[in-house]
Design goal:
alpha/beta, 652 residues
Length: 652
């Protein structure tokens, strides 16, 4: 016996016959095709019970270990649990209506031993085919007239019955069956089955798209194809959540650049912000400052403002605007200079400048042709989009990461997150903030410890971010606009190393002014709070505009933050003025400083600020109406008093 055991131990590792499989149920299929005759897409149309659907298919957020999947593999929008519940109760369980759902659309994604997505389908094996034959075909006379099992790829096997029919089986340990369209119907059926057992036997149709052939013909990964399918399927009158589209759109550069900043799949590089500190929803385009450092849509706005000065080519309307496209093209050249690389790797015909020229020539060629209704339309290929994304990552990821991790106001959030275990893997708050919105609700429900921990963390976070300009959308756009315009634009060689060194200089300068202007979190001593009031040099005649420092600069008369492009430009220039003032004071005026004298602080945008203050003064109710000249004179006096206030703070 001992000898036999020893022999078995030696042979086991060499044989795959003992491999265990987690097979799905065999599902009856009919093969259908879609697309052009020379590029057909095969689909397996499955008709199965709700019970089998729930057993063998999942939605994205319920996949095994999905919280550790990088954002580059997102293939579905956020699930609205309330909407799914409403479908269940107001439709499925409600009497009197004919119950019908359109087919759900699904794909099979290959996964590794940790259930993380693979870049290609594994090769088929005869052992797996034999296992299916033993488990299903030989064990059931139902398959007497079927053909032998045939592997489609590793993990996926069909048992044909004629040319276009048969049964489909997959190993759930090797591939994950994911519903990419119809997740709310899926969840509604799941809830209905729990409330009414008869729904378990209801039949549903699932269109399972065969990714294996698409991946083989295009060279794309299964998740890339699934993402393309999701965006295409959901490009309908019912819009997909904007954040998810940004995360999944692999063609628009603003979206792909944003993805670079938050993608945590790079082993040797950090994302710009840890996923746990990112607002993945950004309701209203803003991030939740009580639990996040920034947000997906905020990062997109930062890139749009800092790098492109609001020029974009994201929509068809954008791409038909000659002036806007020209500005975007020039900015791409300034910051990425991609044409030489495009020509080298793809071809001269794909250069951004060449594609723009073609669009212009199309208009000129058809300008005098009355029968030709031609419009300017710029476009670039998806291959170019991938190259631009790669170049942005190589040049700027480390600079963004450095600023978000090093600037004092941002560092405070990271420090707090570490204190509460938000950044520690497998800690309760780490699991909570890595989860999707719907999952967070589930984790909080009935778990008082999680509720208390979340409440405590978010309460402390709010004490840091409340009224703090650097933590607002406008503040972050201004900070990075100052970085790009005032520092990165001076780069000579346009390399990652040079940009990173300049980003470090910027961070050092910003932290210097922040330390001087914000010695405490008190509203009396924190200059970067929106309600900071002038202690000296106040112009009482100008009322609140003369006493509230930020009113007339980035705060409107009603007390709200001005999110306009002009406000961002003003704030960006002010940040540069503060940093360069200290540099000048240190490097050029050392003798004056030592003797007790200091250089005079001045706003670069003095005249613009005078006009902004004049507009606010014009809205004030004075006992005696001021003339136009008197309004300008008062506005100048207010702006000069604010210069004096900054000079005093910087030199105290």
């Amino acid at each position: 016996m001992a000898k036999e055991k020893q022999v078995k131990k030696k042979k086991a590792p060499k044989s795959k016959q003992d491999k265990t499989y987690n097979f799905s149920s065999p599902h009856d299929y009919y093969i259908a095709t879609f697309g052009r005759p020379d590029e057909p897409i095969n689909m397996y149309v499955l008709n199965l019970s709700v019970g089998h659907m729930l057993q063998d298919f999942k939605i994205f957020e319920d996949l095994n270990n999905v919280s550790s999947w990088p954002i580059s593999t997102l293939i579905q929008r956020e699930l609205d649990h309330k909407r799914a519940s409403l479908i269940c109760k107001d439709y499925l369980l409600k009497g009197g209506d004919t119950k019908y759902f359109p087919p759900l659309i699904a794909v099979l994604i290959p996964t590794d031993n940790e259930y993380k997505p693979l870049d290609e389908f594994p090769p088929s094996s005869s052992e797996e085919t034999k296992a299916i034959e033993a488990k299903f075909v030989k064990a059931n006379e139902y398959y007497d007239q079927y053909e032998p099992p045939e592997a489609i790829s590793g993990g996926i096997t069909k048992i044909p019955f004629g040319g276009d029919q048969g049964d489909l089986v997959w190993d759930k340990g090797a591939v994950s069956a994911v519903v990419i369209d119809g997740q709310h119907r899926y969840k509604a059926l799941d809830e209905a089955k729990k409330l009414d057992k008869t729904f378990e036997d209801c039949l549903v149709t699932i269109t399972l798209i065969d990714l294996t052939e698409i991946c083989a013909s295009t060279g794309k990964t299964p998740t890339d194809v699934a993402r393309d399918l999701f965006v295409t399927i959901n490009n309908t009158p019912i819009e997909v959540d904007e954040t998810r589209l940004v995360l999944m759109d692999d063609k628009d550069v603003l979206s792909t650049f944003t993805q670079v900043l938050i993608d945590d799949s790079f082993e040797d590089e950090k994302p710009a912000i840890p996923p746990e500190l990112i607002d993945w929803d950004c309701e209203g385009g803003k991030h939740n400052i009580s639990n996040s450092l920034s947000g997906v849509l905020v990062l997109r706005q930062i890139i749009l403002s800092a790098m492109f000065d609001e020029a974009k080519v994201s929509t068809v309307d954008d791409r038909t605007n000659v002036r806007g496209v020209r500005k975007w093209k020039d900015k791409i050249e300034d910051w990425l200079a991609p044409d030489e690389q495009i020509e080298s790797e793809i071809g001269a015909q794909e250069k951004i400048s060449h594609r723009f020229r073609l669009a212009e020539e199309e208009i000129r060629d058809n300008h005098d042709d009355e029968e030709e209704d031609s419009i300017f339309l710029f476009s670039y290929s998806s291959v170019v989009s991938r190259l631009l994304k790669k170049r942005f990552k190589e040049l700027y990821l480390s600079s963004f990461e450095h600023v978000f991790s090093s600037l004092l106001p941002f560092e405070k959030i990271s420090t707090l997150a570490k204190k509460h275990g938000v950044l520690d893997v497998n800690k309760p708050l780490n699991n909570y903030y890595r989860a999707f919105k719907g999952k967070r609700e589930v984790l909080r429900k009935g778990n008082q410890d999680i509720k208390n921990a979340v409440s405590m963390y978010e309460k402390e976070c709010a004490t840091i971010t409340d009224k703090s300009i650097p933590h607002t959308v406008m503040g972050q756009k201004s900070i990075f606009k100052a970085l790009f315009d005032g520092f990165l634009s001076s780069a000579q060689d346009k390399t990652n190393d040079e940009y990173l060194e300049l980003a470090k200089e910027f961070s050092e300068g910003f932290n210097d002014i922040y330390g001087r202007l914000c010695p405490s979190m008190s509203s009396d001593e924190n200059f970067f709070l929106t309600d900071y009031k002038m202690k000296k040099n106040k112009v009482s005649k100008a009322k609140s505009v003369g006493g509230d420092f930020w009113k007339g600069i980035i705060i409107k008369y009603n007390g709200e933050i001005d999110y306009s492009r002009s406000a961002v430009l003003i704030m960006s220039q002010l940040i540069q003025d503060l940093i360069f003032y200290l540099y000048t004071d240190t490097d050029e005026d050392a003798e004056d400083s030592n003797s007790g004298d200091s250089s005079v602080f001045e706003f670069t945008d003095f005249n613009k600020l005078v006009q902004r203050h004049k507009r606010l003064i014009n809205k004030l109710e004075f006992e005696d109406d001021l003339t136009e000249e008197e309004q300008v004179e008062l506005a100048e006096k207010v702006v000069k008093s604010k210069q004096k206030e900054l000079e005093r703070l910087l030199n105290q």
